[in-house]
Write a structure and sequence with these properties.
Blueprint: H1 7-21, E1 28-32, E2 38-43, H2 64-70, E3 83-86, H3 92-101, E4 105-108, E5 133-135, H4 140-154, H5 159-169, H6 174-186, H7 188-195, H8 199-212
Parallel strand pairs: 3-4, 4-5
Antiparallel strand pairs: 1-2, 1-3
Helix pairs in contact: 2-3, 4-6
Length: 214
């Protein structure tokens, strides 16, 4: 599967895995120009104790899309032609940042019926002004993989809160929730992190888990 993903999606997944390995929420985002070349990157850093230059870190605002957008150099580009890719449907804050950034195209790989906010488009006069193109998850398997990482990480935190959240997520990605629960029980994703596996290997192993737990 990894070889079939476009460079923006590969980069998003690498950033999401990097975030997971740093105990932050596994979300990655990139901005590309119209030619598909990546010109900005960001990942979730809410639990990070350090950050790359210009990146937000160590607070609740340190989201992946926010970091990709705030580090974008606007001077040499036309933002209207740029594209935001993100592993997970943007939250209200990140959706607002995307809308106000001048970008016009959004791709996301995993739905989030709890905090995802693409449905805000068109709900106010201001949010109805711009012609925005939103592309839903491109691959069901990719959505399952991303959801499973979120679920697995949540279960290492507040179990009651996690179960409540997962009940909502189950409405759109039941296989992802089941896989995440299985990964939590087995500890396999944590072992992959301890081994320092590259993202491509992690993705291929998770695909094997999907087949096992269907």
């Amino acid at each position: 599967m990894w070889e079939t993903l476009s460079p923006p999606w590969q980069a998003c997944l690498e950033l999401a895995w990097e975030a997971y390995c740093d105990d932050s929420i596994p979300i990655g985002a990139v901005v590309t120009g119209a030619d598909g070349v990546i010109i900005a990157r960001g990942r979730n850093r809410i639990h990070d104790k350090r950050g790359a230059d210009g990146h937000i870190y160590g607070n609740p605002l340190a989201h992946a899309e926010a970091n990709a957008l705030v580090t974008l150099d606007y001077h040499p580009i036309d933002p209207h032609t740029c594209i935001l890719y993100t592993t997970t449907e943007p939250c209200p804050m990140c959706m607002g940042m995307f809308y106000m950034s001048g970008l016009r195209t959004l791709h996301y790989a995993c739905r989030d019926p709890f905090a995802g906010s693409v449905n805000l488009l068109g709900t106010t006069p201001y949010l109805s002004r711009k012609l925005i193109k939103v592309f839903d998850p491109p691959d069901p398997t990719l959505e399952i993989l991303i959801m499973s990482m979120h679920v697995e990480m949540n279960l290492f935190g507040d179990a009651r809160c996690a179960q409540s959240l997962h009940a909502v997520w189950r409405s759109v990605a039941p296989e992802g929730v089941r896989l995440g629960e299985a990964l939590h029980r087995s500890g396999e994703l944590r072992r992959m992190r301890e081994m320092g596996l590259p993202t491509a290997n992690v993705i291929e192993k998770l695909i094997g888990y999907i087949e096992t737990h269907r």
